[in-house]
């Protein structure tokens, strides 16, 4: 499909307008980053701040909505009345990861360094919120299309309140749109734009081994009595083969035919893989990231204490939260069933093992042949001065499929400011302010183009 990149005087005016907005956009993003909107944290404060930003940008009915049993409110608003114009749903989330090993105060104190704004959530995904707000401001609160805006507060915690709300039969007609824009991914590097065409799904399961009534002295009882933690580690060690590929039969793989990005050198640098440490698995890096499963342990109960508090005791019970990333097309429940079968066949010493489904969501493949997708590509090319790449992403956004189901022929666009150097979820997370400016411009150009079709 040919990308029309002809620049108009209106495009030039939008560029100038977005550029003039950057000081205020940065200031408002700093205010958002200061709000510690982690799960169980200041989510209500963050939601109210987003409502205020949207109202100021012309979304007069912006409000918070309590859905399901979730503690973090949904922010919802609309801009209507554009007769004959399409409706675009804009999505982002205001909740963030905990500081983790990053100093708590530093994580929530926004700091600009070499053009990057550092702070937890500066990229993921408060930059997405500011993209939406910035696009509205670029049109002086009068966007050329109808809008529906969803900013959620439970994306990182995975509680699924919004997904449950969307899945209810009585809500099947809510949030229908002619295009969906999810501002929660990014380009391949600063200044190199991309549209995300695929997402892996995710399935989670808790694997529990119980061997003793209570912990006992490892000297008096160690040997005949099985240690639950040691048994659990033997189970986990069977999940990969000697090459590092996932060894669970029934987890699907597909051939990757998209852009061969990242290459190994770029991937190692972005991931921080130490010199001398080999990558695991087979196939290209893109194949392994986008269209092959991966398995990791993301939580652990019943492990021995830290080394400096070591204790001579056998563990009586141990549980691992096992996270499986899935290729698009595999259902999470089927993946956990495959995991359960695998573990049943590899139980150490024939010990009883419990495998409990802990949630998940399916992967996603975008419809890349539509005129709407082409307009998004053209908007990115105009904003960045170079053609965008279409690539996959190893992460998961379970909500995307539910949005697509609202109107199956409506394209879902995934883009944003979260290029690899943003280091989302890690200490030192940041967003490059040039990316925020370019992506805000791209979104404004895209909405303008949609209004002219």
End-to-end Cα distance, whole Å, is 16 Å
CATH C-level label of the largest domain: Alpha Beta
Largest sheet: 6 strands, mixed
Across the major sheet, the strand order is 1-2-6-3-7-17
SS-derived structural category: alpha+beta
Question: Portion of residues in helices?
Answer: 25-40%
Task: Please give the number of β-strands.
Answer: 18
DSSP strand (E) fraction?
15-25%
- What CATH architecture label of the largest domain applies? 3-Layer(aba) Sandwich
Query: Which radius of gyration do the C-alpha atoms yield?
Result: 23 Å
Sequence stretches where pLDDT stays below 50 over 5 or more residues: none
| Average predicted confidence as pLDDT | 93
Domains counted in the coordinates: how many?
Answer: 2
GO molecular function: metal ion binding; peptidase activity
Pfam families: M20_dimer, Peptidase_M20
Organism: Saccharopolyspora elongata
Protein name: Dipeptidase
């Amino acid at each position: 499909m040919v990308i029309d990149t002809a620049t108009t005087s209106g495009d030039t005016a939008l560029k100038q307008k977005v550029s003039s907005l950057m000081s205020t956009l940065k200031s408002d993003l700093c205010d958002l980053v200061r709000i510690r909107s982690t799960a169980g944290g200041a989510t209500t404060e963050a939601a109210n701040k987003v409502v205020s930003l949207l109202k100021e940008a012309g979304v007069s009915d912006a409000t918070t909505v309590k859905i399901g049993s979730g503690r973090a409110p949904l922010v919802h608003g609309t801009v209507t009345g554009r007769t004959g114009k399409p409706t675009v749903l804009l999505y982002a989330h205001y909740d963030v990861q905990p500081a983790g090993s990053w100093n708590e105060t530093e994580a929530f104190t926004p700091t600009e360094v070499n053009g990057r704004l550092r702070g937890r959530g500066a990229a993921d995904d408060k930059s997405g919120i500011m993209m939406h707000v910035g696009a509205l401001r670029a049109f002086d609160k009068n966007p050329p299309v109808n809008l529906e805006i969803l900013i959620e507060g439970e994306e990182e915690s995975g509680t699924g309140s919004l997904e449950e709300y969307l899945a209810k039969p009585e809500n099947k007609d809510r949030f229908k749109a002619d295009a969906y824009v999810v501002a929660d991914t990014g380009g391949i590097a600063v200044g190199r734009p991309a549209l995300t065409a695929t997402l892996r799904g995710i399935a989670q399961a808790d694997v529990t081994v119980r061997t003793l009534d209570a912990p006992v002295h490892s000297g008096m009882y160690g040997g005949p009595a099985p240690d639950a933690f040691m048994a659990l580690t033997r189970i986990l060690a069977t999940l990969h083969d000697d090459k590092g590929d996932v060894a669970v039969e029934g987890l699907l793989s597909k051939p990757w035919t998209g852009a061969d990005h990242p290459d190994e050198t770029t991937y190692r640098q972005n991931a921080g893989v130490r010199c001398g440490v080999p990558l695991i698995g087979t196939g290209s890096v893109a194949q392994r990231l986008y269209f092959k499963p991966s398995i990791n342990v993301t939580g652990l109960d019943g492990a021995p204490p830290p080394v400096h508090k070591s204790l001579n005791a056998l563990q009586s019970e141990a549980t691992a939260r096992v996270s499986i990333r899935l290729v698009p097309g595999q259902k999470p429940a089927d993946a956990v069933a495959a995991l359960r079968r695998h573990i049943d066949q590899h139980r150490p010493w024939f010990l009883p093992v419990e495998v409990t489904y802990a949630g998940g969501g399916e992967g996603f493949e975008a419809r890349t042949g539509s005129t709407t997708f082409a307009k998004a590509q053209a908007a990115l090319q105009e904003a960045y001065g170079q053609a965008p790449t279409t690539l996959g992403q190893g992460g998961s956004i379970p909500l995307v499929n539910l949005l697509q189901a609202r109107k199956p022929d409506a394209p879902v666009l995934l883009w944003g400011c979260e290029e690899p150097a943003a280091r989302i979820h890690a200490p030192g997370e940041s967003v490059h302010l040039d990316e925020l400016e370019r992506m805000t411009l791209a979104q404004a150009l895209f909405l303008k183009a949609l209004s002219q079709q």
